[in-house]
Amino acid sequence: MQKFKYNTSDRRKVTTLRLLEMKESNEKIACLTAYDAITARIFDESGIDLILVGDSLGNVIQGLDTTIPVTLDQVIYHTKAVQNGVKRAMVVSDMPFMTYQISVEDAFYNAGRLMKEAGAEAVKLEGGDYIADKVRVMTEAGIPVMGHLGLTPQSIHKFGSYRTRGTSEEEANKIFNDAICLEQSGAFCVVLEKIPYQLAKKISSTLRIPTIGIGAGPYCDGQVLVYSDMLGLTTEFNPRFVRRYAHLHEVISEATSRYLEDIKNQEFPNLNESY
Fold this sequence. Notes:
This protein is an alpha/beta fold and 275 residues long. Helices cover 40% and strands 13% of the residues. The chain has an 8-stranded parallel beta barrel with strand order 1-2-3-4-5-6-7-8, surrounded by 7 helices. The longest helix is centred in the middle third of the chain and has 17 residues, at 169-185.
């Protein structure tokens, strides 16, 4: 098979239709999280298809243990920043905990804020059949919705751990049926997190819409990672599904140490770096 090489001249805007075409042509979808303009610009110029402004910003940006405290206003703020750096990639924003669970009206209003105020091109919700009515109302009104099944971080206190989901027949059937339900409700895509690859393969081959995996094996239609994990900025989080493509924690630490030493030793700035 010929190796893929991103063509920088192909600047077609990624849309829900383009993602569907990619699934149909078996072109894998590449997704990363981002929370600021400069990171988003680098990813966009590198050819990343989807940028997710995840509520993982609570962990990555704010240093929280869970995503639960993240607010809608915070996601709006970071989505605006990301949109300032993006031209080609599709930008999807997470709906934080308790911004869509209360009622259809509440969910619809908050999703509208992400689209209108932040410039999100789609929103992502965690859950299956119990959010189907919200997904249906949003999509009918023109708000694209990405689903999220398997390990759902906003439900961590319910599950009590970050263990793999869908390992029992009952739970696997539930996830599979929820995926079908989300598609039938109008979702354009579904994230599958930390489920057995056999289950992810079954879902991906059944659905017409794309699946995006994270810890769900190679048979999904695309993959997503939190950028700080992929780039090796985090060192304490080492699940098997994370492949580190750089070790920026070491690079930044070394550069910071050199900067510190140059200042302390009065070697920075020199006269050539002065006015």
